[in-house]
């Protein structure tokens, strides 16, 4: 039979692994570690949950046992019966069953901190990625685009430019960015000014007038991260205003911007 103390360590690690694996932020942290680092993280997380479970078990667990004995005249200790069937010839201490009940309660506590809705889980994954020092490039920019509802202007290494919306906010590592382009063009070699060429939006409007059920996915463009040299949010109205101001220097403000 496995030593009770080894069994305790195993249960604590399983509780910690359960909590980390099913939580978006914990899963990403766990995936980055290996070997003894994962073991210690699971053990530490499990220990914290088991301690919290013990504090809750002392008043409520004992109360549940007393209520079962009073109401149904039975001793409600399911894990004791389970261990007796699994090891009929072994003398198993009674506290092992109690510890197993605490472990189950600890897993229930872990479930409280795990997002249940798909939207909440996605937000938690994005937040975990944003807080990660090794998060993929342009992730914060993509998140800002999704939050403010503005497209992103991507400049590639060959001076090709795409302005469009990224397909949602990535929730895992990625090597390319998939966008629905609104406008594409290039940057002038001498001035690096953006020169629009292809107005995808015009085509989208024409397609929509003919068929309201058509999808934009067929016009998606995949941009490899290694080819993107610059990216920023793009507001078409502000861009027009910038062009007007650049053409008439007399309208330039000579004041300073004060932070609110």
What this model shows, in words?
- By secondary structure, the chain is an alpha+beta fold.
- Helix content is 54%, strand content 15%.
- It is elongated.
- It starts with a helix and ends in a 13-residue tail after the last helix.
- The chain crosses the membrane at residues 6-27, 39-60, 92-114.
Mean pLDDT: 78
Order of helices and strands: HHHHHHHEEEEHEEH
Report the count of strand segments: 6
Number of helices: 9
Q: Structural class, from secondary structure content?
A: alpha+beta
The proportion of strand residues reads 15-25%
CATH architecture assignment name of the largest domain: Roll
Q: Give me the Rg, rounded.
A: 29 Å
Distance between the termini: 68 Å
Shape summary: elongated
* Main sheet: strands, sense, barrel: 6 strands, antiparallel
Q: Segments where pLDDT lies below 50 for 5+ residues?
A: none
Question: Helical percent range?
Answer: 40-55%
CATH third-tier fold name of the largest domain: SH3 type barrels
Q: What number of structural domains do the residues give? A: 2
Under CATH at level 1, the class of the largest domain stands as Mainly Beta
Keywords summarizing the entry:
15% strand, SH3 type barrels, single chain, alpha+beta, 260 residues, elongated, 54% helix
């Amino acid at each position: 039979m496995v030593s009770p103390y080894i069994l305790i360590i195993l249960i604590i690690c399983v509780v910690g692994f359960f909590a980390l694996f099913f939580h978006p932020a914990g899963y990403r942290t766990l995936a980055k570690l290996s070997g003894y680092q994962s073991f210690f993280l699971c053990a530490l997380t499990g220990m914290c949950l088991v301690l919290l479970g013990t504090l809750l078990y002392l008043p409520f667990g004992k109360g549940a046992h007393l209520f079962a004995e009073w109401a149904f005249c039975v001793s409600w200790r399911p894990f004791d019966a389970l261990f007796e069937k699994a090891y009929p010839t072994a003398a198993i201490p009674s506290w092992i069953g109690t510890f197993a009940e605490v472990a189950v309660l600890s897993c229930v506590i872990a479930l409280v901190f795990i997002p249940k809705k798909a939207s909440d889980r996605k937000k938690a994954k994005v937040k975990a990625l944003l807080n990660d020092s090794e998060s993929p490039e342009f992730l914060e920019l993509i998140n800002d685009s999704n939050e403010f509802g503005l497209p992103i202007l991507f400049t590639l290494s060959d001076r090709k430019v795409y302005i469009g919306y990224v397909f949602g906010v990535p929730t895992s590592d990625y090597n390319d960015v998939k966008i629905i382009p609104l406008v594409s063009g290039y940057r002038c070699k001498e001035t690096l000014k953006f020169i629009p060429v292809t107005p995808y939006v015009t085509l989208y409007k024409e397609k929509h007038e003919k068929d309201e059920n058509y999808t934009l996915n067929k016009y998606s463009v995949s941009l490899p991260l290694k080819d993107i040299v610059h990216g920023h949010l793009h507001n078409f109205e502000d861009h027009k205003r910038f062009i007007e101001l650049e053409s008439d220097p007399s309208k330039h403000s000579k004041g300073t911007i004060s932070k609110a």
